[in-house]
Amino acid sequence: MKLPLLDTESSRGFILRRTATTMASTEIARQAGEGARAVPLAGHVGFDSMPDQLVNKSVNHGFCFNILCVGETGLGKSTLMDTLFNTKFEGEPTQHNQPGVTLKSNTYELQESNVRLKLTVVNTVGFGDQINKEDSYKSIVEFIDAQFEAYLQEELKIKRTLHSYHDTRIHACLYFIAPTGHSLKSLDLVTMKKLDSKVNIIPIIAKSDAISKSELAKFKIKITSELVSNGVQIYQFPTDDESVAEINSTMNSHLPFAVVGSTEEVKIGNKMVKARQYPWGTVQVENENHCDFVKLREMLIRVNMEDLREQTHTRHYELYRRCKLEEMGFKDTDPDSKPFSLQETYEAKRNEFMGELQKKEEEMRQMFVQRVKEKEAELKEAEKELHEKFDRLKKLHQDEKKKLEDKRKSLDDELNMFKQKKTAAELLQNQAQQAGGSTTLKRDKERKN
Amino acid sequence: MRSGQRDKGNQKTSGDYVGIDAILEQMRRKAMKQGFELNIMVVGQSGLGKSTLMNTLFKSKVSRKSVLATAQEKIPKTIEIKSISHDIEEKGVRMKLTVIDTPGFGDQINNENCWQPIMKFINDQYEAYLQEEINIDRKKRIPDSRVHCCIYFIPPTGHCLRPLDVEFMRRLSKVVNIVPVIAKADTLTLEERDFFKKKIREELRANGIDVYPQKEFDEDAEDRMINEKIREMIPFAVVGSDQEYQVNGRRLLGRKTKWGTIEVENIAHCEFAYLRDLLIRTHMQNIKDITSSIHYEMYRVRRLNENNTAVSHANGLPEHHLSAHEM
């Protein structure tokens, strides 16, 4: 079908539906999908390869999927994960005496044909074990929020690397319900109510081989009605795409899935199948008459994995982001309803922060200066003391020296006097010898005296 | 988080199929449902066959030829930017194609700064996307009006690039993916064409102009190999036509002259097919990725830092303080 040539101004009828805008100002008025005219193609262009290009890019990049398993200890969470993904994930069964609920997460890299999946399984350790379970849900909510927060921080960074960011946000939360056969526990209701606005909840009945078929049907009805009456929003498999609408809506009616997990294999007929063997019979995991495991696997992995990821990003994460930013004081429009630039408020907050930082820096500097002054004073004191000591010692030294000088002087004087006496005595001796020897006796006597 | 590596791909038995690879099908379904967007800008002097080439590429009247009504009509004083959107569909894949035309480019006597309105337009699209992205209440799918690819038409002089070409490509290769093409290549013989191309590549290299596919964005050895082959062929010498003629019993798009009919999709005649394959069949996703993860991010960093320095200078804070702190 060839289109009529439209290069005459008279055919305004067609032009009206076209969005042709000229740049008089800087505004381009174009809404996504609105007003664009549908144009038939006269031949094969080739952009039908776009989905393939997109898929190839994703395959090169790898995929990320994060599952959170919430449920009491001993409900078979780890076993179910092992069964779902056909591998033996790490970990031994946890003890029942944990003081609080902690979340342990492990990341695994799985590969099937050319698809690489980074799977993170988060387990709640100690859930439902405490005597007082009022705060059990808190650590779970905190964990989920922390993952959103990490993503938000990365998104708000100036230099960011979103395409290589390892997404840790929880895409699906499997809530394990204990197979009592009666109704939900109040812990379950409270926890699910707190989680339903933050994560896609898929409730499952664990260890369902403990319930008989008739009881199971009643149990499921009871659970669904309790969830509805308490306003808990569990994840609904999407029914807007025709190719999967049918299967998804059937599955929606089978929620919650009653599952049995097992990694042990038993020979049935001539095949080895995953099963649990009892004296009275064998429960086959992959037999749809025995349990809903196959349904869970279909829904969780083979049909809706991408939708789970998308819902997490476009609904739960956006809600978190909106609340967080509003909490931090950002608004889209200021009181005069002029659009507020997020950056302006950023800047205001950042300046506050910088101001505080500066103040702290000043304080530290002051303290430093103070300390230096004190130390200086101390050192000066010490110096002064040393000087004084030195002076004293010097003086002592000088005194000593003087005394020695005096003593020496007196000794010298004595010596001189002695010398004089000696010379005087020798002179007299010589004179006496010359005068005669007669008087020697006399002199001897005199001398003796 | 502890990271345990389990590669079970090799150890699977036939009964152990988990179904992880079904996600590919899920992605494909989602993509088909959402549809794709592509925004191409064509830049070049009037009369180089821009509209015809667009119509040939997409095999429909996506671009309107700008026909001046009379010879006395003045050449426009400024460059206009005209953006027209079409919804096209092929084998269930829907695409919103937007062709951005720039009539008036290079047509004035004084062409100084003629790239400015174009740069401004491109940056405005980035700005619009950024504004939507930083909104608190933002749309599920932010409408993508960013220019993914800019096809620059080089007139077939056969000698070398003109200063206008060099200036334009130098500035714009920093903000958008540029794909240069030699327009109306049926006026060049094969030898002239090869010489012209070599000259152009030399000049691009000498001026440090990085056109698509850019060397620095090659992801791995395989990419590099494929892109090197393309880089050795650019710019593509193209001929556009929206008329069909009978050639050897088949109806083909071509240009009929007295000395023969040029077949547009025949690679012996011109390189239109290579351009089409590059743009549409193999590298479309890559073009969009580079726009969103590199050009747009660069704009965003620049824009967010602008605010910082403006405010910081007001506060007297040295710039290096801010680079250390990131929100």
UniProtKB/TrEMBL annotation, chain A:
Which Gene3D superfamilies does this chain map to?
A: P-loop containing nucleotide triphosphate hydrolases
- The UniProt annotation puts the region (Disordered) at 428-449
Task: List, in alphabetical order, the Gene Ontology terms for molecular function in this entry.
Answer: GTP binding
Give the keywords, sorted.
Coiled coil, GTP-binding, Nucleotide-binding
What region holds the Septin-type G domain? 61-327
Per its UniProt record, what CDD domains does this chain match?
Answer: CDC_Septin (cd01850)
Please give the SUPFAM superfamilies that the UniProt record associates with this protein.
Answer: P-loop containing nucleoside triphosphate hydrolases
Extract the Pfam families matched here.
Answer: Septin (PF00735)
Entry's InterPro entries?
G_SEPTIN_dom, P-loop_NTPase, Septin
Superkingdom in the source lineage: Eukaryota
Keyword Coiled coil listed? The answer is yes
The similarity comment for this entry is:
Belongs to the TRAFAC class TrmE-Era-EngA-EngB-Septin-like GTPase superfamily. Septin GTPase family.
The identity of this protein, by name, is Septin
Q: Which organism is it from?
A: Labrus bergylta (ballan wrasse)
UniProtKB/TrEMBL annotation, chain B:
SUPFAM superfamilies reported in the protein's UniProt record: P-loop containing nucleoside triphosphate hydrolases
The biological process GO terms on file are: cell division
For the keyword Nucleotidyltransferase, the answer is: no
For this UniProt record, the keywords arranged alphabetically read as follows: Cell cycle, Cell division, Cytoplasm, Cytoskeleton, GTP-binding, Nucleotide-binding
Do you know which Gene3D superfamilies this protein is assigned to? P-loop containing nucleotide triphosphate hydrolases (3.40.50.300)
Q: Where is the Septin-type G domain?
A: 34-306
Where is this protein found?
Cytoplasm, Cytoskeleton
Extract the signal peptide range: none
Q: Which CDD domains match?
A: CDC_Septin
The source's domain of life comes to: Eukaryota
Matching Pfam families, A to Z?
Septin
Q: Which GO terms describe its molecular function?
A: GTP binding
Protein's UniProt keywords contain Repeat: no
GO CC annotation? cytoskeleton
InterPro entries recorded: G_SEPTIN_dom, P-loop_NTPase, Septin
**UniProt similarity note:** Belongs to the TRAFAC class TrmE-Era-EngA-EngB-Septin-like GTPase superfamily. Septin GTPase family.
Q: What is this protein called?
A: Septin 9a
UniProt lineage: Eukaryota, Metazoa, Chordata, Craniata, Vertebrata
